[in-house]
Amino acid sequence: MANSNTIIKKIPYLITGATGNLGSAVVTTLLKSVDASSITISSSSASNADVLAQKFPATNFSHADYVDPATLHAAFQGVQKLFFVSSNVPSDPKRLLLQHKNI
Hints:
Elements: E1 11-15, H1 21-30, E2 39-43, H2 49-55, E3 60-63, H3 69-76, E4 79-83, H4 93-102
Parallel strand pairs: 1-2, 1-4, 2-3
């Protein structure tokens, strides 16, 4: 039996890139069929938390920076389904590759 201090809350859905057009559209569509509390939305910038909370009330927020594995590890804890929106860095293919590798 696991110690209650080590139990990770299961968050069924994590949507990355929620500040962008695609990520926002996914969240909006998902909210039509599931409870907002089962959705975690993420952004590579922690400063977007307030903006996203206003746009998508009752959802959870997690900072998930694709180039910072520690933030990814924390954001992915307990997630059952991930909708991964890649970042837009076409001018820097090495950075994009690193981001995908970290995911």
